[in-house]
Design a protein that fits this description.
Layout lengths: L1 H59 L16 E5 L2 E9 L4 E2 L5 H10 L7 H12 L12 H6 L25 H7 L3 E2 L14 H6 L5 H17 L21 E8 L7 E9 L11 E8 L2
Parallel strand pairs: 3-4
Antiparallel strand pairs: 1-2, 2-5, 5-6, 6-7
Length: 295
């Protein structure tokens, strides 16, 4: 009898242990599911906030330039939306170097600013030109299909314009590190041979052939002071060479970043063209040329 009672007690203890394990597992599962649900809600809210930031920045473009809340200089500004804050930056793409239309000299200046010595620029410039020109005849130090295949790559030269700045990574000789240094100064939406110095970042201004560091630093300081006063940016001192853009305000790169208090984060970047007959650009006569999320 005592032996049977002992066996029964062991069985009960095992059952209690098993129930405790099941209960603990169930509690852990509920905790995980609750955390996942919060994360999903946080990410969804962050995305909605970031998209609202892009829309608000687009609406801001309807105002006359002196009255805009977000100057097109690429500097992030906080925008309060309800209880949340969205960081918004706007940049006029005329202040960037167009991969498709920039002169060889301007691209060479950018390579120099990115740390490529003069004796290493020729092959990279030729490779970029061979990528974007329509023929399959290589320049002196360039690269066409056979050169890409010989390098073990599964593709050849595009022989057409760049559709996106990220394509530069595919050009033979452009390393990942070099691309990272060049990309912030580039666009494919300016359509101009030069740049607008009033909205160009420091790296772009330093890429302009014939300018020196002291001149650029003094100009940037003057531009900063005038922006703080709410005045229009000063023109860059004459430099010649035809490296200045003839038009600006045609397209803007907008970035919105949101991090709700309850968690989650989202980043959206869009390029919005003004004065076009397209749709979907949040405001009349505009279109979205590019849309990227969670970069």
């Amino acid at each position: 009898m005592l032996r049977e009672h002992g066996i029964a007690l062991i069985v009960v203890l095992w059952m209690l242990t098993l129930l405790a394990i099941i209960a603990g597992s169930f509690t852990y599962t509920l905790r995980i599911e609750s955390t996942l649900a919060v994360n999903v809600v946080g990410r969804a809210k962050a995305r909605a906030l970031a998209e609202a930031g892009i829309a608000y920045a687009a609406l801001d473009m309807l105002r006359p330039p002196p009255l805009r809340r977000f100057p097109p200089n690429g500097i992030p500004y906080p925008w309060k939306f309800g209880t949340e804050t969205v960081m918004i930056s706007v940049r006029d793409v005329a202040g960037l170097i167009d991969l498709n239309t920039a002169s060889r000299e301007l691209l060479g200046g950018l390579l120099m600013a990115a740390g490529v010595p003069a004796n290493g620029q020729g092959r990279l410039l030729d490779a970029i030109e061979d990528w974007r020109d329509p023929d399959d005849i290589p320049l002196l130090e360039g690269a066409e299909d056979k050169d890409y295949f010989a390098a073990g790559l599964p593709y050849g030269a595009k022989d057409g314009p760049f559709d996106d700045v990220t394509e530069l990574q595919q050009v033979l000789g452009i390393s990942s590190a070099l691309y990272q240094r060049m990309a912030p100064s580039l666009t494919v939406y300016s359509g101009q041979a030069g740049v607008d110095p009033t909205v160009a970042p420091r790296e772009v201004l330093l890429a302009i052939p014939g300018v020196d560091l002291q001149l650029i630093e003094a100009y940037l300081e003057e531009r900063r002071i005038m922006a703080a006063r709410g005045d229009i940016p000063p023109p860059l001192p004459p430099i010649g060479g035809g490296y200045l853009a003839q038009a600006s305000g045609l397209a803007y790169s907008v970035r919105a970043e949101a991090k709700p208090e309850e968690g989650g984060a989202a980043v959206i970047e869009a390029v919005i063209a003004l004065g076009s007959s397209g749709t979907g650009g949040f405001i009349p006569n505009s279109s979205i040329l590019q849309w990227r999320e969670n970069l």
